[in-house]
């Protein structure tokens, strides 16, 4: 089985049809179909179940897809590096962040960075935590910025940039805005916007209620803190989020209050432990540190 056959297999799995895979790879539908049939004959076992003109991967095909992911991630990183060399992008930094960082501090840091280094090209993406860590490890991104990293990442070097407590956000004029500190029991009589229980942040919010021995009840559930802040700023309800996400909405549209039950979270920068940062990546990291320090100073003054 060669890399071209793997590429075909992965394209069919992603598209679920040979037509879609052919369109992605620039091949005709018959060419893709024949290649898959040949590969199944070569391997000696089926790769797809054909149901209602759709191709659903077998357990063996899914395993091949997952096991080959590091190969194609590395290939994508190499292609990006070759492109940089070809276009003489001596100044080009690729960064990636989870939503709490990507929609709050990173835009502020990026604005300052571009003022200082206007000729540097920046590739910026916002993804889930697992994707951020994988992209940095594979070399697709030089720097990753995450919130609530949790356990140690053996293949990555990490730097804690900021620590703060989870906060409560609510619309202007909300009844709870008159309180200086919000207790979990205060939320019981109001529309509560929860974070998905399958996320790290969602588990932290549930811990706050558990510590206070307050039943956990919600009206709306979202995946990301910035989505909760947007809903709160539009008058939907109240939410408990990380201390950076409120920066993603207009500050005159929400009220932010501390919680009586402290729940600390940290913002961190991650980089590969296998390769040094480029000059421009180091410069961007300095911009992020400055933006974090400015945010921490403003919070202290408030």
From TrEMBL:
Parts of the chain that traverse the membrane: none
Keywords of this entry: Activator, DNA-binding, Transcription, Transcription regulation
CDD domains for this protein: PBP2_LysR_opines_like
InterPro entries linked: LysR_HTH_N, LysR_subst-bd, NocR_PBP2, WH-like_DNA-bd_sf, WH_DNA-bd_sf
UniProt domain HTH lysR-type: residue ranges: 1-58
Domain of life: Bacteria
Cited SUPFAM superfamilies: Periplasmic binding protein-like II (SSF53850), Winged helix' DNA-binding domain (SSF46785)
GO molecular function, one term: sequence-specific DNA binding
PROSITE patterns to which the protein is assigned, alphabetical: HTH_LYSR (PS50931)
GO terms (BP aspect): positive regulation of gene expression
Pfam families: HTH_1 (PF00126), LysR_substrate (PF03466)
Similarity section: Belongs to the LysR transcriptional regulatory family.
The protein's name in its UniProt record: DNA-binding transcriptional LysR family regulator
Organism: Aliirhizobium cellulosilyticum
């Amino acid at each position: 089985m060669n890399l071209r056959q793997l590429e075909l297999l992965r394209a069919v799995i992603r598209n679920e049809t040979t037509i879609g895979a052919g369109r992605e790879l620039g091949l005709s539908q018959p060419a893709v179909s024949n290649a898959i049939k040949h590969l199944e004959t070569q391997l000696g076992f089926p790769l797809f179940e054909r149901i209602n003109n759709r191709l659903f991967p077998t357990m063996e095909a899914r395993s091949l897809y997952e096991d080959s992911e590091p190969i194609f991630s590395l290939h994508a990183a190499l292609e990006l590096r070759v492109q940089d060399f070809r276009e003489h992008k001596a100044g080009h930094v690729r960064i990636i962040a989870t939503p709490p960082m990507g929609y709050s501090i990173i835009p502020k840091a990026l604005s300052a960075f571009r003022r200082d280094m206007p000729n540097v090209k920046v590739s910026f993406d916002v993804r889930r935590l697992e994707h951020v860590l994988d992209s940095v490890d594979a070399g697709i991104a030089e720097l990753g910025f995450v919130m609530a990293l949790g356990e140690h990442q053996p293949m990555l070097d990490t730097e804690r940039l900021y620590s703060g407590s989870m906060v409560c956000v609510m619309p202007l004029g909300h009844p709870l805005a008159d309180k200086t500190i919000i207790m979990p029991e205060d939320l019981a009589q109001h529309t509560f916007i929860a974070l998905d229980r399958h996320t790290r942040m969602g588990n932290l919010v549930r811990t706050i209620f558990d510590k206070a021995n307050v039943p956990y009840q919600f009206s709306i559930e979202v995946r990301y803190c910035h989505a909760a802040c947007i809903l709160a700023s539009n008058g939907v309800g109240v939410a408990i989020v990380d201390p950076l996400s409120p920066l993603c909405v207009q500050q005159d549209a929400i009220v932010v209050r501390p919680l009586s039950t402290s729940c600390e979270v940290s913002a961190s920068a991650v980089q590969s432990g296998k390769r040094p940062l480029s000059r421009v990546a180091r410069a961007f990291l300095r911009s992020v540190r400055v933006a974090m320090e400015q945010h921490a100073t403003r919070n202290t003054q408030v």
